[in-house]
Write a structure and sequence with these properties.
The chain has 314 residues and is α+β, with helices and mostly antiparallel strands. The protein is built from seven helices and 13 strands. Strand 6 and strand 7 form a beta hairpin. It is globular and about 50 Å long. It starts with 17 loop residues before the first helix and ends in an 11-residue tail after the last helix.
Length: 314
């Protein structure tokens, strides 16, 4: 990381070096060549997002399989975790890292915050939580795109233009869009937020996933958000193990996903569940992490879950 751009500099954010960017591009099996700023297009951004999603899983394993049971947002730590250790992370890790890669390439990136809707966990869809999600906003030729590589199974699979109600293809047959509306809990009904929504097919209802505004968030905001999300017993990240990784087909399209919730793993392609597996012991779950997600933990990391609420004791 370039140390000449401190986190508290209001005119800049840290970037990775050209050699680090090249190593990242190699890790996602894209290109070893760092593109010139003039070639930074929406198409290139979309390709990067697909390859990233198919390489680095959404996961919260550091909370459960580490001696510190904590999550670091240090950009050098994130680079080592993603590129060198071939791991993933949850929203703030994923989008802080990917946003820094995009900024290093020359994209105009603004970091935003989001509120997750209770519909994600089977709620009414009328309640949004506190600021707990990170999103990147990328501006290309004055057009603004929401870019999010950190929401897991229901997350966006491509940049989404901030245009009210425009439907975007996702992993077929699912679709995604953003709409602008007042949130149900706003007392000032003149206020509006962007709401990211998905639906499983064109003939099903839209489900709200999270809301966000275009207000810029600072690195120190995410430190506060990350502390609560990774340590509070009210945060489901502290009592559940979650993973989601996209699957790319031979044509470079995102065609499915592999997911795991605690001990239940699923493999989906084109909206259909092809395979399931139930893990009843730690050895079985570690095997799925290796074979389905490409994650190999150290012996120290494997031992760290012993005695915790998420340990599989079968």
């Amino acid at each position: 990381m370039d140390p000449s751009q401190p986190l508290n500099d209001p005119t800049s954010r840290p970037t990775y070096s050209n050699s680090q960017v090249r190593e990242y591009l190699t890790s996602i099996q894209h290109s070893t060549q760092v593109p010139s700023p003039s070639s930074l297009s929406l198409e290139y951004l979309s390709t990067l997002q697909r390859h990233h999603l198919a390489t680095y899983p959404f996961e919260n394993l550091s909370i459960h399989y580490s001696s510190t049971h904590s999550v670091s947002l240090d950009l050098d730590v994130l680079y080592d975790k993603f590129v060198r250790k071939r791991r993933g992370g949850y929203c703030m890790e994923q989008n802080a890292f990917f946003g820094t890669v995009l900024r290093s390439l020359g994209y105009e990136v603004t970091n935003l915050g989001g509120r997750v809707c209770d519909a994600v966990n089977g709620g009414s869809g009328l309640r949004y939580g506190s600021w707990s999600h990170m999103i990147n906003l990328v501006t290309i030729s004055s057009d603004k795109y929401m870019v999010d590589v950190g929401f897991g199974g229901d997350g966006a699979t491509a940049p989404i233009l901030l245009e009210d109600g425009t439907v975007n293809p996702r992993i077929s047959p699912s679709e995604m869009r953003v709409v602008k509306s007042a949130l149900p809990e706003y007392t000032d009904r003149a206020q509006e937020a962007w709401i990211y929504q998905v639906r499983s097919s064109s003939d099903t209802a839209w489900s709200p996933i999270y809301s966000f505004t275009e207000t810029e968030f600072f690195p120190q905001d995410y430190e506060m958000m990350n502390f609560w999300t990774s340590t509070s017993r009210q945060s489901f990240f502290t009592y559940a193990i979650l993973l989601a990784k996209m699957v790319m087909d031979s044509d470079g399209r995102l065609a499915g996903s592999v997911t795991m919730m605690n001990g239940e793993a699923k493999r989906r392609m084109w909206g259909q569940v092809l395979k399931t597996r139930t893990c009843r012991s730690e050895n079985e779950r570690l095997e799925v992490l290796r074979e389905w997600f490409g994650i190999v933990l150290t012996e120290e990391e494997e031992r760290a879950i012993k005695g915790t609420v998420t340990e599989l004791k079968g």
